[in-house]
């Protein structure tokens, strides 16, 4: 029998400003948030970043641990989605300010999404 470790996500009241701002301190993570801001859940394989898969995994874990994203595993695939409602409830307006500033300064623009269907 194979056991899959489920990702831990902080509850709303456990999210801290320091953790969230720390997660926003890296351009790759800001780029990932920009991509996820469209509200769609994305498979990790759809994300296009100029880093190794292990580094992408690290960045996604930092975002998840801060409460910015939610990760879901389905079989061998992982999916990630922005926790916009939770962020807006805990820190009203913060996400919009960060996204506006990131777009204005072109932070994270080198991160994208592959629009081709995922490989089986």
TrEMBL record:
SUPFAM superfamilies: Winged helix' DNA-binding domain. Residues 9-102 form the HTH arsR-type domain. InterPro entries: ArsR-like_HTH (IPR011991), HTH_ArsR_DNA-bd_dom (IPR001845), HTH_MetalResp_TranReg (IPR051081), WH-like_DNA-bd_sf (IPR036388), WH_DNA-bd_sf (IPR036390). It comes from the Bacteria. Pfam families: HTH_5 (PF01022). Keywords: DNA-binding, Transcription, Transcription regulation. Gene3D superfamilies: Winged helix-like DNA-binding domain superfamily/Winged helix DNA-binding domain. PANTHER family: TRANSCRIPTIONAL REGULATOR, ARSR FAMILY, TRANSCRIPTIONAL REGULATORY PROTEIN. This is ArsR/SmtB family transcription factor.
